[in-house]
Amino acid sequence: MGDQPPPSSVSVPHTFGWGDSLGRVLNALEASVECLLQRQSWETGAQEALSHLGRAVEVSRAYLFEYISVQDSELVMRQRYEWAAPGIKPQINNPVLQNLSIRDDAAAILFAAHCRGQPYAGRVDQLTAAEREVLEPQDIKSLAVFPIMVRGACWGFIGFDDCTRPRTWSESEMTILKIAADIFAGAINRQLEEDIRRSAEERYRWLAEQSNDVITRCTPEGRYLFISDSVRRHFGQKPDELIGRHIWEFIHPEDVGRVRRLKEEAMAGANSGLAEFRRLCADGRHVWAEIAGTPIRDPKTGQVVELMMRKRNIEARKLAEAALRESEARFRAIFESSGEGIFIYSPDEDLIVQANPAMARMLGLPVDQIMGKPPAQFGLSEDEPVERRMSGLLATLGEEVVIRDRRYVARDGTTIWARVNATRLDRDDDRSRHILFLVSDLTERIVAEQRLSESEAGYRRVAESNRRLLNEVNHRTKNNLASILGLVSMTAHQASDARQFASDLENRILALSRVHEMLSRSQWRDLDFQSIVCNVAEALARTLPFDPQLRSRGPEITIAPRIASPLALVLQELFTNGVKHGAFRDHQGTVDLEWAVKDGHLTLIWREHLAEGARPLTSTLAEGTGIRLIRGLVEHEIGGKVAFKLDPGGMTITINLPNPASPAQAIGL
């Protein structure tokens, strides 16, 4: 539209455009809400919603387009749904509207307005030539198009065409149609958010089940909503037996106050600290457990709606600590048999003074190669200060310190992600300071999270690939069915009897099938023209009692899939016509097939040479049934031109086609 303002900026009258029809329009908006928002998916109600709106607004067409990215990240607009009034030609199958690039002049003007959140409306006779070139072939006299804004970006648009009059859209009409676009946007956004929420819920459940800890979700009052299956391993209970029960049923009475304080901290802040308590097991025992809580808030009100808690059985750790305080012998038994890595550290010397077999297995080293070394020697360089920092915190706070993301390096170079608990081991009869480090290997959990992320990315790629494949299959199937129906109709009109009809139809469908097979092998890429010629000629030769003399020559060119099928049928008819009525009829004539590309066009020249002494061709041959089929395929299916010339020595057929290799032709493939 150049430097002039978009059509929607034209002044419009401030009167309601439908007079007494306001009630009908409002009813249509209400019906659209029901179609789009009260069904499982907005897509199941989109067509019906457009029907309600189109009838109420009294337009010729109502439609919905989506902006999508195709190969090379090019943004195109694609029509997905359409309602057309009786007597109005639908445009849903118009190939121009299925992949129209926003680089197109008319589409660029529309897209620029939509990116600004503005409607696009006006009379077609007042638009630019580029816009009229797209709209006038659809018989549009006036249109109003409204962007569908989802998450701050233009997802697509809905539009309304008037093909009966150059309508001027009133301000009230524009306002109500904008409301309709907002209804579509709300439905699409709601489904998108639901898909995101469902995906997040599935990922959360998967991670919870993979975690070594017991992951729970409960109401603010403390009633279980979800509990991971790891509760079986930690406390011997089944998850489904705990859902709906209160957490207080399983906490030792003496520890209820401590856990309540942690819950209140979690309700008040983003995350709570850690608390230890005694938890009831399935066999009636109370074991020491560790708990941490995180609130889940309503994004609108900020109120806590759930509490997410992580629990783990720390009975072994508590026993180990007690054994260290009470008896070296008891400590040694637990120290040696624990499945968790343990080492004792002297911060004064910055050395490991003891390490258990589990720690040795974790690092892939003998115990004696761990003792007497600084812990930093076994960690990543960026984590080196961890043990000294934890020692300083212990000296200041005098209680347990936890680091969740300590990384060690095994002998084979493998990185080990660990959760490290540090506890002081000071004793009255030992003036030296020692710290016990309990190392829990979290590598499997971290790897599982990474694999989940990779799996999600792979799924998205597969889903996108499947979507494109389904679209392509749908497009090709429709084209093939249309071609076959056209062949049936043409052959039925031309056949003199049932046997001829069956034979001609079979040959033409076989030709279509052969080129379809070639396209499938090439994965629907451009085909070599020489290969198409050879394919048709070889197939015909196998049905004849003689070897037809065909000489073909021309440059190497490729044919787009869009015109490969009709062009193959043209060659089939040329050969068949030559056998029945032309140079091959007496088994002695010859044919020269030449092609060339010049000035953006492909020219095919078919020259038939009669054998010496053969009876000449009659002038009626140029209007035979096969020639009429050739003319229809060239001029109506491919958009080219065909000319026929008879002379005493034979016949020449010249076919001129748009160059299938040019950028202009490639757009519509």
Topology:
Elements: H1 22-37, H2 46-57, E1 61-69, E2 75-84, E3 100-101, H3 105-115, E4 120-123, H4 129-135, E5 142-150, E6 153-162, H5 171-210, E7 214-218, E8 224-227, H6 231-235, H7 239-242, H8 256-268, E9 274-280, E10 286-297, E11 304-313, H9 315-326, H10 328-337, E12 341-346, E13 351-355, H11 357-363, H12 386-397, E14 401-409, E15 415-424, E16 435-441, H13 443-494, H14 498-521, E17 527-528, H15 529-541, E18 549-553, E19 558-559, H16 561-580, E20 590-598, E21 601-609, H17 625-638, E22 641-647, E23 650-658, H18 663-666
Helix pairs in contact: 1-2, 1-5, 9-10, 13-14, 14-15, 14-16, 15-16, 16-17
Q: What is the oligomer described by this structure? A: single chain
Please bin the fraction of helical residues: 40-55%
Shape label:
elongated
* Spatial extent as radius of gyration: 39 Å
* Cross-sheet strand order for the largest sheet: 3-2-1-6-5-4
Structural class: alpha+beta
